[in-house]
Amino acid sequence: MCFFVELDEKIFEMEKKKSKVVTMLRSHAIITFGLLCIAFGWGAFLIPSNVTGGGVSGIAAIVYFGTGFPVSIAFLLINTVLILASMKIVDVRFGLKSVYGVVVFSLLLGLFQKVFPEPLVTDTLLATIVGAILSGIGSGIVFTQGGSAGGTDLIAMMVTSRRNISPGRVIMIVDVMVISSSFFVLHSLERMIYGYCVMVITGYVVDFVLAGFKQSYQLFIFSDKYEEVAANIFTNVKRGLTLVDAQGWYTRKPTRMIMLIVRKHEVTDVFRAIKEIDPDAFISMGNVMGVYGKGFDRMKVK
């Protein structure tokens, strides 16, 4: 009997480790795709059009415009210094993902610069918009996995650890300084304004992507078979739910209402679980601005 118990425990541990490995690989695959989008935006649109943005990518681009030194190598060197300087305050997981992001992004950026010596589109404004959108989409994807391509995130961490200032403000100040300095290299007010457009568009797209990934829905479900419906949702969707005492106004019949909150991608599974038990169930669904707690976002109060 003890032998079988120990065997079950070993199998459980193996399955747990396997699940962690699969999760890690999936996360890094998504991060890599995000880095690919950022590198493509910079390497095929922004840099060939002599347009820069904020962050370390912007600094590396300005160095390239002024000296011809490869952007990918400059990006790698600057981030190496920042990572070494921030080792004491950076979380281990975030640090490892930052190293991975910096190395992969540097390689991809170097590749795209060789493949696209000329911009894919000749119109500078169009190149600026497309490059910024791709950069924003990629950054948003990377952020959803807790990853980073280094850069101003690390600068913000170092500054906020010593000064009472928000990370967002630090990043904005650094970006403004970087883009403004491009004027002294490119000697073009127009190119500097394009840089500010990159900063604004990228920030907007990042927020849009993050909002899409974190969008949640609140559902109220009314069904005579609430016990079976609740059990089916819990089993198939793996989400906690709450039974709330209720009473119909017309029938005066006491019943229970199911309340649950799910991510956007889980809504279809919930509807499928409800339909399997009670196709005639009454459902009310609405967007919620923010959900904090187990299984959702963590509260961040400063």
Query: Biggest sheet: strands side by side, in what order?
Result: 2-3-1-4
Structural class label:
alpha+beta
Biggest sheet statistics: 4 strands, antiparallel
Distance between the termini: 53 Å
> What is the 3D form?
elongated
The total count of helices amounts to 11
Number of domains: 2
> What number is the mean pLDDT?
83
**Element order, helices and strands?**
HHHHHHHHHEHEEHE
Residue windows where pLDDT falls under 50 for at least 5 positions: none
Please compute the radius of gyration using only Cα atoms. Answer: 25 Å
User: Which strand-content bin applies to the residues?
Assistant: 5-15%
| Strand element count | 4
The helix content, as a percent range, equals 55-70%
Describe, in short, the structure shown.
The protein has two domains: 2-213, no CATH class; 215-288, Alpha-Beta Plaits, CATH 3.30.70.120.
Descriptive overview:
- With 302 residues, the protein is an alpha+beta fold.
- The chain has 2 domains: 2-213, no CATH class; 215-288, Alpha-Beta Plaits.
- Helix content is 65%, strand content 10%.
- It contains 11 helices and 4 strands, in the order H-H-H-H-H-H-H-H-H-E-H-E-E-H-E.
- It has helices at residues 2-46, 55-67, 71-85, 92-115, 124-144, 152-160, 167-181, 183-186, 189-214, 226-237, 267-277, and strands at residues 216-222, 242-247, 254-263, 282-288.
- The chain has a 4-stranded antiparallel beta sheet, with no helix packed on it.
- Strand 2 (242-247) and strand 3 (254-263) form a beta hairpin.
- The longest helix is centred in the N-terminal third of the chain and has 45 residues, at 2-46.
- The radius of gyration is 25 Å and the shape is elongated.
